[in-house]
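User: Okay, second chain of the day. Same drill as before: sequence in, structure tokens out.
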Amino acid sequence: MAPAEPPAEKQEEPEPGPEQRAWRCLVGYLCFYGFTAQLRPGESFITPYLLSQDKNFTQEQVTNEIMPVLSYSYLAVLVPVFLLTDYLRYKPVLVLQGLSYVVAWLLLLLGHSVLDMQLMEFCYSVTMAARIAYSSYIFSLVRPERYQRMAGYSRAAVLLGVFTSSVLGQLLVSVGRVSFATLNHISLAFLAFSLVLALFLKRPRRSLFFNRPEPAPTSELAPMQGGARGWRDWTLPRMLRELGLGLRRPQLRLWSLWWVFNSAGYYLVVYYVHILWSLLQPMQDAASAYNGLADAASTLLDVLGVLTAL
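Assistant: Same drill. Structure tokens below.
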């Protein structure tokens, strides 16, 4: 009878090396930045703020002249910002997003004309278009097998930030009796802090289209390849060429069109809903606005959906 083999010892999992710890720190920092960038407690109350005595815009001005600028300018800047995101390797676009947020809230607080508010909406549309930089930044940090989980973490951080921002805004308005103007000053302070965080993000060495590693040419082909470079290798022709190649794929073309029009329509509906709320229940004072509570409830459902997909 053969002797029994000794039980195999349980192998301990190796400790994470320096490279693994480095990308974990980068992912953690990116998620913290995504959470902080959403702390805008005054965002849920922008429409009541515009209709209040602080700004004194009419219902028709907000509905027909100010709010439409957001969706249509978003459609105009989405594709150029997307191309620049890949070419500039994410970080400059995230810094641009932070600057646009700060400028938008400065115009919201200091502007008094319809043109000022239209410029504010345009700056805000740039921030929405630049969100693609945050969504795609994560893919430059991890291997493809980790894409789904890491994308879920980054998205959950953003939604938790929106939820926290909405709850904080509602508590400040309903419990703290804070005015809409003070609420927007608090939002501006958070946005300035997130801009500082964006300045310390690491700029990746590669991206999806324009910064991919290319194989080194052989010694015989190197002179020929070097002499063949011309106007086709300039930035704009390369961008248009890559865009054309991508749009030739039916699934990618359908997904891109769906994303563009779905996003623009979503923001158009969301901000017109705020106007509808003011019509259905005119506010006697700031404490009677429950926009933050409604936004928090809808965002919490999104967070639960993302976490269940991990």
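Residues 8-17, 215-228 have pLDDT under 50 and may be disordered.

User: Thanks, on to the next one.
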